[in-house]
Amino acid sequence: MDQISESKIIGVATRRVDGPLKVSGAAMYASDHHFPGLLYAWPVCATIAKGSIANLDSAQAEKMTGVVAVYHRANIGKLYRVPPAAGMSLILDEKRPPFEDDEIRYYGQYVAVVVANTVEQARAAAESVKVTYNRDKPDANSKLLGSPLTTDKPEEKSKRGDTATALKSAKVKVDEVYTTPVETHNPIELHASVAVYDGQKFTLYETSQAVVNHRDVLAQMLGVPPEQVQVITRFLGSGFGGKLWPWPQSALAAACARNLNRPVKLVVSRQMMFQNVGHRPAIEQRIQLAAEPDGKLTAVQQDYVNHTSMLDDYDEGCGEITPFIYSTQNLLVTGGLARRNVGNPTAMRGPGAVPGLFALESAMDELAVSLKMDPVQFRLKNEPEMDESLNIPFSSRHMKECLTVGAEKFGWSNRTPQIGSMKKDGVTLGWGVAACSWLAARSETQASVELRQDGSARVACGTQDIGGGTYTVLAQIVSHETGIPVSKIDVVLGDSALPSGPISGGSWVTASVTPAVLEAAQKASQALLLVAVKSDGSSFKGKKPEDLELADGMVRQKGQAQGAVPMAEVLQIAKVNSVSGQGKSEGTLEDSKPKYSFHSYGAQFVEIGWQPEIARLRINRVVTVIDAGRIMNPRPARNQIEGAVVMGIGMALFEETMYDSRSGAPINNNLADYVMAVNADTPQIEVTFLDYPDYNLNALGVRGVGEIGLAGVAAAITSAVYHATGIRVRDLPVRIEDLLPMPKVNIA
Amino acid sequence: MELFQLVTAKTIPDAVKAQAQSATAQNGADVRFIAGGTNLVDYMKLNVERPRQLVDINGLPLDKIERTSEGGLKIGALARNADVAQDATVKEQYAVLSQALLAGASPQLRNMATTAGNLLQKTRCVYYRDTASACNKRQPGSGCSAIGGYNRMLAILGTSEHCIATNPSDQNVALMALEAVVHIEGKNGQRAVPVSEFYLLPGSTPERETVLQPGDLITHITLSKPVVGAKSGYLKLRDRASYEFALASAAIVMKKDGDRITYVRVAMGGVGTRPWRALEAEKVLMGKAATEANFRAAAEAALHGARPQSQNGFKVELAKRCLVHTMGQVSQIA
């Protein structure tokens, strides 16, 4: 593959091109869209988690001021199921269309929707719809290992060697169960759908991390051809995976608009965010590790079970990283799903890897303790030469350097391993470390680039910027290829009518768009050179296009600054408004026989402060070293890692969606009772990028940084907690009560 | 939220008269005073509070913080939490109150929330907030979902079989330790109620939280002249570093003569169904040396009657450590 190592803009810290729009409030988020005659929809949510609707009485609600309609199973109109997903299309987690039957399978399931002139009227009327239920006892039990699964036995995810024998004969072993609770995404921007229907075409303003897939799904659900649906997400107030796939409110808003022939806005409430739009599932993982006394791993086994909903199969994939992160002859990963009366789980930042690495890296720390080995040295000792699960080389792996550079920056050599042995200003310190990894990939992408007579360029791709800096990345790629400054490049994203782009998931947008946008920019440049050699009045008329180039925004003889003509002038002389080029790149995801193992790597070093006298645990500092290929734009990249680390602190210490065991309701369904890290919890965070280009992935050697920063953080924290307190917390989050010498259950 | 009427009270008697139309001043009141609105409006949105009328009292002249002729402090009902917390006299002479206020909520909320509103702050019990759940406080006789449910945050002192909801305020814990007096104007004129008598235990009527009667308007609170030489402090323990209700908190006022404790007031938050004054702890400490052992004995006494639930047993030990640590901190400056 081509390698582009020199660039004036790639790798240069560049301000976000969409920054001014965001800070001035001009950026239009889904729910900002307003249209004449717009109506507001408010769903009615089931107040049971299992059972069926006995009666639904909307008579009173229908009479209320401003109410236009109340829809439910009998009158919502046809909503179809979607055929099974094919590649990156037709994906959705909750496959049952809303109101399809009268059965209730999770708390908060939509049973009706009220449409009214104002949102207050719609909400008040929704609260007046009287629903009676046949109530069954729900199952939201978080005990998962040993539960009945959706399959006869756990599915084998990865296997090599003879793990059972190796574990049996092991000299040093760890065998523990780790649990992670339900986590709710909670981006500040609520999920929202604004549906406009003109009698034939639907224009849907959505909170979507994947507008093209959203279009395909909604076209199926509504029973219309894809060209009659357009999905627009210009800006997203983040999603963390929760907005990857369509949720039922989108179909409801579209169906209401279809029924009424008027625009309809439906904004999900914060309470509904805990019920109706996915979550990271509850997970239990048993990890068994075996090693020789010298620290060489001999066996790794991971058995996980995650909960899923009653109708759909969401697999968290906790074993994604396990097969290749360390060298071991014997390995087995199994996974299973257990049904519960919960809304469907979905991907949350770093799905699989993040909870999987909490368990694996915690177990690695426990084994290091048993071996009396330094946890950094222990990991270095088990560094693999190749991806042992696929028997292929790593494309670009610098895990060892992440660990050694991190150790150096953190001051790890000053660590004394004895529990509670490190103190500063009367506070007990705990130091912990964890390794991390996340996949690198490309997804099939199309893009177009236009070069215009006014000297500007336009790049368009049907992907989205969910806050990570994608707008700026596309501008940088075009700027690199054409020399046109970033400030003169319009980036158009977030519209399913644009050339089909990647989902904003998997941290693969940057890697995916790079080849397609480069190709589109090259083709646009070639088109420009053709104009230059064919136009009357052009100083290049009659020359061969292959002898010319577009550099620094000027057309010139290859390598000659003299005689260069600005792009705008070339087009003006030719009386041509613009030239354009299309680019298309294949994905790596569908590659059944990959030549390389593509992943990013990192190391997390954490210092916690522990004050037993007041049972106060705080994170003092975090050092993160990331090997994620060449860093396209260090500013938002650092921002991604820092944000992920803060999210990791929340995962380790605070976040847990509590289901009431009797009602099945997620009961702490608001931002006060669902505790996340706040600014005051944010420690000093030092981020280092190793910045080794991965040219096997694309010509710029870029991968992605959206998720890896979260992986490993929780394990590094619980290992640090162990170092300070001697208490190993295997059930997240770490609570004050875990660290007090008190019985956890003490019923009055 | 249900439709309601908003009226503006021009005078205190106006306000009293308007609220006196309500059958109760407690949970379920159909006429409510509104000041900062930081608590009431939330609960109206959730349909937990469904007043038919709101009486806006923000125009009443009740926002002053001023010295009393006896050398104490008078804090108007409408004085904003942020203003009280930053008041020079409060910071210097009633430090525990300033610290408690700053430990609560967020700057934005403190800018709006008022002294009297904070006195009447509702519990944060998740079942009280959820109209689909049984809750004796919200709907008398419906049952208590918290007992046997999610009760990690809830009370271990002053509970009953009908209610275990925690009083969530920080301010009120400090007011307990400062022995504040609540001044009320009602249908039958003015009266003064010590804050220790202002709150009711839930017993079999958890919907009744205070002694307020229909028409009662809190006009101000008073703090008596500071005890010469006494020092005070507040410590709040919680999961995250900010913007969370207390798991346990302590407000201590203490004076020493040499090493001997000659004056002490002990109050706790996050553990009681009302802001909790620990008279037993004070008895243990009075006249004793300010030692960790005595602090521990006082803390044991304070938590003697604790009745933990399925998830909050840790609060017993946490509250003790909170008390011991705060007593130690205050004793060092006293």
Automatic annotation (TrEMBL), chain A:
InterPro entries: Ald_Oxase/Xan_DH_a/b, Ald_Oxase/Xan_DH_a/b_sf, Ald_Oxase/xanthine_DH-like, AldOxase/xan_DH_MoCoBD1, AldOxase/xan_DH_MoCoBD2, AldOxase/xan_DH_Mopterin-bd_sf. It holds the Pfam family MoCoBD_1. Residues 24-137 form the Aldehyde oxidase/xanthine dehydrogenase a/b hammerhead domain. The keyword Oxidoreductase applies. Keywords: Molybdenum, Oxidoreductase. Residues 152-162 have a biased composition (Basic and acidic residues). Residues 137-164 are annotated as: Disordered. Its EC number is 1.17.1.4. This is Xanthine dehydrogenase YagR molybdenum-binding subunit. It comes from Granulicella mallensis. The lineage of its organism: Bacteria, Pseudomonadati, Acidobacteriota, Terriglobia, Terriglobales.
From TrEMBL, chain B:
The keyword Oxidoreductase applies. GO terms for molecular function: FAD binding; xanthine dehydrogenase activity. The keyword Flavoprotein applies. Keywords: FAD, Flavoprotein, Oxidoreductase. Its EC number is 1.17.1.4. Residues 1-228 form the FAD-binding PCMH-type domain. It holds the Pfam family FAD_binding_5. PANTHER family: OXIDOREDUCTASE, XANTHINE DEHYDROGENASE SUBUNIT C-RELATED. This is Xanthine dehydrogenase YagS FAD-binding subunit. It comes from Granulicella mallensis.
